[in-house]
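Protein 1 of 2
SEQ + STRUCT:
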Amino acid sequence: MYELDASMTRSTTVPLSTTRPLPVVLWATAGALMLAFQLYVLGRWITGPNFAPTLPGADSISASQHVLYIALQIGVSAAAVVCLIKWLILPLLRTGRMSADGRLFAAGAMIFFWDMSMNYSSTALFYNANLINFGAWNLGSWPGWMSPAANRLPEPIFITVPGYTSLVTTQAIFVCWLLRKAKVRWPNMGILSMIGLIVLGCTVVDTVIEVVLLRTGIYAYPGAIRSISLFAGETYQFPLNEGFLFGGLGVGAMAALHFFRDDKGLTWAERGVEKLRFGETGRQWLRGFAVYGFCHVMFLLLYTVPMQWFSLHSDPFPTNYPSYLVNGMCVYGVNADQCPGPGVMTPRIDSVD
């Protein structure tokens, strides 16, 4: 659907060596390992003691907020179902094969796994406990998790899980559409310019979406560095590093993969699949796992890993967060009663209840 013309892709295609592992094999292996790890963590969470709702606490929300949150959970979930039917299920039923859009949406549907990863080293993300939740798949489920009380994060399963299909993967599709329009307007645009536009476009789109969502109060970034944040010091502050790392680089990597395909419709991750002695079904599985591997490895390397530095260098939290956002996650400092920030001691996991 979004394939480039053959004349452009031939100029950027690197011939594959017959003595090296084929890209599709490497990325498919990474995809299988990523999925296995994610299912392991989610399985430990669902079957473990931390699979329990985080309750809102003493503070309450208004009736209008309650109605809004119900509408958001229904709307985001319904939008995800529509996206998956349109781009994944219907093409599969018509042709018996997964389309390029379908592979991207299948990979994007599981990106929700990394949603809370900015809290890996230190608390920097809050969610609203008035949304349907069962805690979070981190502390006690995710090997090596560092931040204390992380299981109290009320990850809203009817917002984040479907949201990565209806609000995140669609960003990549939308930016690909914009880039095709730009390519028609400026046909001599080089590959570096196109990649730059993808990063810029995904950063801007994600920033706009998140700024709007933050004003609803469904989540917050208390652990932001104020000098590089919009609305710094407010409960709805937005760290620009989130827009760049998550949107520009994370979602941007998905968009770039989807946009730059050769004349056979193969992405970078799928190159070499035609050289393998597999049947069509086997090749389809390999292509799906390859796209999955690329998208998830990129999110891990371009978003999750660098976000740890920003989380560990957060400014003091805004002071007026309600109980249904804090959710008992500020257990830092000598007396285990402070939020993270400059000069606040970070406790070890085994020193916190």
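Protein 2 of 2
SEQ + STRUCT:
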Amino acid sequence: MSNSPKLARIAMFQHELQTENIDAAILVLSRDIFYYTGTAQPSILVVTPNSFFLIVRRALDFVERETWLPADKLIPGGSFREAAESLKNLGVAKGRLGLEMDVLPAELFLKIAKTFSSFEPINIAQMVLSQRMVKDDDEVAYIRTASAIMNAGHKRILETLTSGMSELDLAAEVEYAHRKAGHEGILSMRNFDFHISHGPLSSGENLLQVSGFANTVTGVGLSPAVPAGPSRRQINKGDLVIVDIPTCHHGYHCDETRTYILGQADPNIVDLFNRLKEISDTTINILKSGVQCREVFAAAHSAACALDVEDLFLGLAPRKGNFVGHGIGLDANEAPILFHNSEFPLQDGFVITIELHLTHPSHGAVKLEDMVLIKENGCEVLSVTERKLFEV
């Protein structure tokens, strides 16, 4: 892709600012700056309806190599005072100032408010996130590669999962395989105070324990300090194992879950997984541009009811989930969320997950999560790893 379509991201953002009568916006979050500029170096991106510039706090040489912005849009510096002065030079000395208020620490917000005291702060986080939902060809390509990297981890499970190894040992093997395949080693989540390991991995009786971080299979972690992810529990013959460790390539994530069993699966487990896959297939088959998030949830729930697993669908009461997937991109969990009551419509170019699990009080849990690209008249499953119950 040439620089012109990438610069169109800023042009679209400028149009939104003008539509909402916002005089200027200041972006400081590295994921947002990367989206609009191609660099994640410490910077301040200032955008008005008619102009923009990037104040580079450090590593100007990196920025010059990485960004698609014209050289005359780069300003060495680093302070919000410089941003304010630059806006004054553009004739913007007051008005409405857009900020990423969902992620700004209070101290930084107060600092910006003091420097731009003649401006009214406006939250433009949703404006940015809405634009980020639609992926261009480059973004989809990065996600495809992240999905291929994910497959390396699943192959490693088939090579290494043995009786007596711990959840932590298995997670380390998966993470090692991901890194060797090109995983950038981050799990970016746009959530305040969200701390988790590199991703959930859980087995046996741990599958029935759900941390407060999410109403899904989380694992219990190594300590109460980070109560999610793999533990030191030993995996034994007959145990179900759920692996949900995301990967990242060029900043873009893959979030995919597969279920394994050590040894031959009991017929009850096979039946439980087959019902889960049928629910997932039914859900994926309705995906296309224009379908509302609640319709996706309803399709999954109706399939669960038809297959007589409603009580097991998305966990056991009272900790049942209320969504069946989420958007994914520069964050592993981003808009849209496929909530049961959301009327938000899917659009061509969205990349989402379909994330489903069934939890049985006696047999444990099975989970299946896939990456899906929404298209005008359907969808494409981007996940590389086979969608089945793996017997190891």
